[in-house]
Amino acid sequence: MFRLLPVLLFIALVFFGYQWLKSQPAGKKRRAILQTLFALLMVLLIYLVMTGRIHWLGAALAALLPLGKVALGLIVQILPFLKRRTQNPQATTNGRMSPSEAAEVLGLKQSFNQGTLTQSELLKAHKALMQKVHPDRGGNDYLAQRVNQAKDVLLQEV
After folding, report:
1. Which stretches in the chain have pLDDT values below 50?
2. Is the alpha carbon torsion for 86, 90, 92, 98 positive or negative?
């Protein structure tokens, strides 16, 4: 009977936790899940320390792991030379893509530099690349947007 009580308690916690999670607004579900997982990690670490299955120093280090992202952000603020260059030197100042950068994105740099780039070659390269990076085919929105922007820039040049 004594062993059945923790199992029933766990099942009740899972049930009520699931109901609570369903009642959360859509924008806050991810945050609620992360907070719940963090709380469960803390409870597990405290349990392991109290039962002697883990040293208290190991538990303290494990508890600091979720804070690693925040710590890295603070380190970059304190030591600014650790920042990577975020701006592309080929990009223009107004945020638009340069024609040479657009040709590089589409893999047409050689044809663009020689001045032999045709509209049909451009559209063919765009279509082939979009089939690889389209979000519906496993790509992502950012890459698809870059490819479309490169096509638009080069269509103005051709």
Report:
1. 85-93
2. negative
- Distance between CA 85 and CA 79 in Å, rounded? 14
Residue 121, both tokens: 């070659």
Tell me if 44 sits within 8 A of 36, measured CB to CB: no
Residue type, 107: G
User: Residue 35, Cα to own-chain centre: how many angstroms?
Assistant: 19
CA dist 84 and 32 (Å) reads: 32
Q: Nearest-CA neighbor of 157 among 100, 110, 104?
A: 100
* Residue 158 near residue 118, CB atoms below 8 Å: yes
Token output for 52: 């002697």
Express each pLDDT in 87-96 by its tens digit: 444 444 456 8
* Tokens (6 digits) for 23: 């009642």
pTM of the model: 0.42
| Half-sphere exposure in the Cβ direction for 97 (13 Å, CA) | 21
Is 147 within 8 Å of 126 (Cβ atoms)?
Answer: yes
